């Protein structure tokens, strides 16, 4: 079993049924406010895609998707999505979204190779979103402005939850800060990337860690893995909160301005994945047939966990956990669904 943090004298504050009511309230309220703030329309999305399309997200390149074959397409491998990063951009074109319009969807996935702990489950549930922008808006200013809007909605949700469940709400910082992965390496060269994120999150409360995927100057290694064919590594990042109940950082969102034909070509070369240029999605992008976009994902269970001060993601989603983990959580008053 991977690391499990048991907070001292843990009090879940809400019963399981009260927690379920809070989960429903948070999910329904957040998606409505988030959609209005970013001008996004809710759309239906697939749970699985054909492998041959190249639409699935390969995450860090080592996680294997759950796959199967279907009776009507015996020669095609079907993969349960890891995320909808590429599908969303294609959908914006197919469905005729205009400038500064976008979509969001409920994305459910299985990541069977995930290391389980308080924050990580093999079941992933998030709001995946994507929005059309102009080529000249592919800037750091656009990225930061969008991050601030997302933080604003999350912060407003704190007040909404406090009104409905005052005994349970976890209080968030009043602002979000910005830092690049290179600045973190320059400041703490002897720490690992994840240790640097822990330090800066504890120091600032909430931070957007920018520029993930390309090699850093000192180590010559990326801060963290990021697929080369959706985020632009120079214009992306993660929203991270310092989470007092567990004394750990908690990542809520991974997002960014998406690759241009030029940046994807560079990133595929850096990742040793030039062969992907022959896949249908990648051909369309390189031929300039897809809109310029910004997008990302926001963890639904993680947001519920954050706002309700829960000790384990299993308190806000139903998944599968090792028996040893279940026993330790039960002994500590952590109510896994």
Automatic annotation (TrEMBL):
Superkingdom as given in the UniProt entry: Bacteria
InterPro entries, per the entry: aa-tRNA-synth_II, aa-tRNA-synth_II/BPL/LPL, AsnA
Keyword Hydrolase: no
EC number in record: 6.3.1.1
Iron found in the keyword field: no
GO cellular component: cytosol
Keywords: Amino-acid biosynthesis, Asparagine biosynthesis, ATP-binding, Cytoplasm, Ligase, Nucleotide-binding
UniProt-annotated location(s): Cytoplasm
CDD domains recorded: AsnA
One Gene Ontology term from the biological process aspect of the record: L-asparagine biosynthetic process
Record-annotated Aminoacyl-transfer RNA synthetases class-II family profile domain positions: 24-322
Reactions accelerated catalytically: L-aspartate + NH4(+) + ATP = L-asparagine + AMP + diphosphate + H(+)
Biological or metabolic pathway of the protein: Amino-acid biosynthesis; L-asparagine biosynthesis; L-asparagine from L-aspartate (ammonia route): step 1/1
PROSITE patterns: AA_TRNA_LIGASE_II (PS50862)
EC category: ligase
Any one GO molecular-function label of the UniProt entry: transferase activity
Pfam family of the protein (one): AsnA
HAMAP family, per the entry: AsnA (MF_00555)
Family note: Belongs to the class-II aminoacyl-tRNA synthetase family. AsnA subfamily.
Xref: PANTHER family: ASPARTATE--AMMONIA LIGASE
Entry-linked NCBIfam families: asnA (TIGR00669)
Protein name, per record: Aspartate--ammonia ligase
